[in-house]
Design brief:
The structure is a single chain. The protein is of the alpha/beta class and 317 residues long. It has 2 domains: 24-207, Rossmann fold (3-Layer(aba) Sandwich), CATH 3.40.50; 216-301, N-(1-d-carboxylethyl)-l-norvaline Dehydrogenase, domain 2. It is 49% helix and 15% strand. The protein contains 13 helices and 10 strands. The chain has helices spanning 2-18, 32-43, 55-76, 81-93, 101-104, 119-129, 148-152, 186-198, 214-230, 236-247, 253-260, 262-275, 286-293, and strands at residues 24-28, 47-51, 95-98, 110-113, 138-141, 161-166, 175-180, 202-207, 306-309, 312-315. The protein has an 8-stranded mixed β-sheet with strand order 3-2-1-4-5-6-7-8. Strands 9-10 form a two-stranded antiparallel ribbon. The longest helix has 22 residues, at 55-76. Residues 211-306 form the 3-hydroxyacyl-CoA dehydrogenase C-terminal domain. Its EC number is 1.1.1.35. Pathway: Lipid metabolism; fatty acid beta-oxidation. Homodimer. Interacts with GLUD1; this interaction inhibits the activation of glutamate dehydrogenase 1 (GLUD1).
């Protein structure tokens, strides 16, 4: 009987996933990333429930979505203001908010978290939701650096778990990294890829390796720029100018590090270094550690590698 039950559940799960077309989406986390994902999903006809811990946070999220939509409409409906307003209202009607995550996931095809980058918090969340969400529901994380396999480990739906790494600002950035673990089913992966395409995004397939593709290349690049400066081989300003004019990059590595957030950069590097302590690309630096310890995270705090004074950049000392 036990064997029959396992086979039935396995067969049911596989069939459910195979037929999933993602229409109902629950986004957990009403911050900039979560709100951006909710906006894009609602703009493309998906029904979205945005979840966070308080009504105040969610009201700010919806206000942010409305402001972002107004900027979109200003360009897209420049000559048709009435059509633009209609578009905004149509999108906002597709977004509902909730502080009850258990209730929110009960009719979801996809549950996507965009919460704090803390492995245990993510594991606890998905471990609880695994018991509440329907069998067909796909779980996904928007993590930029944590292993999807580790996040998924407390659940019983390893075949229905993947990564969807969006980029900030979500409404503007076209790329989504779609991450499959060794347990992610082909059906789940295809559902996630199709969902991204339905959002108007360009998905790329990634393995569950540190940093996936973009951050795996980008973070060591920024780290090596810092070490290059620490060795006395170039000033911060000259390194940034060199990469912008010589490589055609829109930002140099130091300006980019300030944009990403030095605290975020340090968090990613420290996590990778813990797993691969002998990898030279995953080593931190004295300058990075010093700036983060001083609370100088970059643009979000007004000072990082560069100071921001009256909208102008100047070198920090």
């Amino acid at each position: 009987m036990a064997f029959f039950t396992r086979q039935f559940i396995r067969g049911f799960s596989s069939t459910a996933v195979r037929n999933v077309v993602i229409k109902q989406v629950t986004v957990i986390g009403g911050g900039q990333m979560g709100a951006g994902i909710a906006q894009v999903a609602a703009s493309t006809g998906h029904s979205v429930t945005l979840v966070d811990t308080s009504e105040d946070i969610l009201k700010k999220s919806v206000k942010g979505i409305e402001g972002s939509l107004k900027r979109v409409v200003k360009k897209k409906f420049a000559d048709k203001p009435e059509a633009g307003e209609e578009f905004i209202q149509k999108v906002l009607q597709k977004v509902s908010i909730s502080t009850d995550v258990g209730s929110a996931v009960q009719s979801s095809d996809l549950v996507l978290e965009a919460i704090v980058e803390n492995l245990k918090i993510k594991q606890d969340l998905f471990g609880r939701l695994d018991k509440l969400a329907p069998a067909h529901t796909i779980f996904a994380s928007n993590t930029s650096s944590l292993p999807i396999t580790d996040i998924a480990s407390p659940t019983s739906r390893l075949d229905r778990f993947g990564g969807l790494h969006f980029f900030n600002p979500v409404p503007m950035m076209k790329l989504v990294e779609v991450i499959a673990t060794s347990s992610t089913s082909k059906e789940t992966f295809e559902s996630l890829m199709n969902f991204c395409k339905a959002l108007g995004k360009t998905p790329v397939s990634c393995k569950d390796t540190p940093g996936f593709i973009v951050n795996r290349l980008l973070v060591p690049y920024m780290g090596e720029a810092i070490r290059l400066h620490e060795r006395g081989h170039g000033s911060k300003e000259d390194i940034d100018i060199a990469m912008k004019l010589g490589a055609g990059y829109p930002m140099g590595p130091f300006e980019l590090a300030d944009y990403v957030g030095l605290d975020t950069m340090k968090f990613i590097i420290d996590g990778w270094c813990e797993k691969e302590p002998n990898n030279p690309l995953f080593q931190s630096s004295a300058l990075l550690n010093k700036l983060v310890a001083e609370g100088k995270y970059g643009r979000k705090t007004g000072e990082g590698v560069f100071q921001r004074t009256g909208g102008l950049l100047s070198l920090s000392h």
